[in-house]
Design goal:
It is built from 8 helices and 4 strands. It is of the alpha+beta class. It has a single domain, classed as Nucleoside diphosphate kinase-like domain (Alpha-Beta Plaits), CATH 3.30.70.141. The radius of gyration is 15 Å and the shape is globular. The relative contact order is 0.23.
């Protein structure tokens, strides 16, 4: 088993379109455990820190304006190979490349409005978790399913 945590953000378009529950339910149905969840309104400073790797790119100002335009839902999901599994559930970043059955393939309109952000690796996941959550906001609780699947 490779139990790990990853970060997911439902972006303003996902919140505004009323598909928060649909997005969350896909992770739950896959068997991932929700460790933390909250709705926030990102300010420009937090958005700039989160998207620092995109600074200077042509789409950066549009991205910051979009992500700060409305509340977002941020969460931490845990499970066996969670980073990889979440990325597969989310689908390709480019809307026209996202496969049907993935969150982006089923709901994204274009690459800018692609419903959800998910950490792209283990280091990124840890950085994003630390950026959005305090340790006391992350919850440990037993899952009956884990006892059966992982023989804890």
């Amino acid at each position: 088993m490779n139990i790990e945590q990853t970060f997911v953000m439902i972006k303003p378009d996902g919140v505004q379109r009323g598909i928060i529950g649909e997005v969350i339910s896909r992770f739950e149905r896959k068997g991932l455990q929700l460790k933390a969840l909250k709705m926030i309104r990102m300010d420009r400073e937090l958005a700039a820190t989160h998207y620092a790797e995109h600074q200077g790119k042509p789409f950066y100002n549009r991205l910051i304006a979009f992500i700060t335009s409305s509340p977002v839902i941020v969460g931490i999901w845990e499970g066996d190979n969670a980073v990889h599994i979440v990325r597969n559930l989310v689908g390709a970043t480019q809307a026209d490349e996202a496969q049907a059955g993935t969150i982006r393939g089923d709901f994204s309109i274009c690459t800018t409005y692609n419903i959800v952000h998910a950490s792209d690796g283990h280091e990124t996941a840890q950085r994003e978790i630390n950026l959005f959550f305090k340790p006391e906001e992350i919850h440990e609780y037993p899952l009956t399913l884990k006892k059966w699947l992982y023989k804890e």
